[in-house]
Amino acid sequence: MSTLPETVARWDKFLAGIHERFGAVLSEAQTGCAQLLANNDYDTSAFGIAWSAMEARAKQLDSKLWNSWEDKVSPMFDALDLEAAVEDRERHKAETLSGRMEVELEQMRVRVFADAARAVWQRAVAQAPPQLSCSGCGAPMAAPQALSAVNLTCPHCSAVVTYEPGMRLRAIEHFCVHPLCEELSWQQWLAQHEAERALNDSRNETIGLLQAYEHAQVQYWRTYLTHRVQLLPARAADFDKDLRGRMAAWYDRVHHSAAWIKAGRPRTLA
Ligand SMILES: [Zn+2]
Question: Are 18 and 94 within 8 A, CB to CB?
Answer without folding.
Answer: no
